[in-house]
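cron nightly-structures :: item 1 of 1
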Amino acid sequence: MTGKQALVFWGGWEGHTPERSAAITSDLLRAHGFTVRTENGTSVLAGDLAHYDLIVPMITMSTIAKQEVENLCMAVRNGTGLAGMHGQMCDAFRNETE
């Protein structure tokens, strides 16, 4: 075990199968020793993200609250990894380009 913590959150347009993609990604991370928290929606981003080593959005064409995007950006600026794939992160929040 690496002791690494990951957050995978999912939602948005069903055409990109966000729930299934989040489950597959979570399983892959667990196979590599991560402890994974998987959540539906963005509300998890309103809390403290500092203890996560990696955050993986599995979300397409959705919206995010100002506090949530600020917390996510602060976590990344402070060293938390951010990972994703086309169709599950690149078009997550069209109105929040930060």
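cron nightly-structures :: done
The mean pLDDT is 88.
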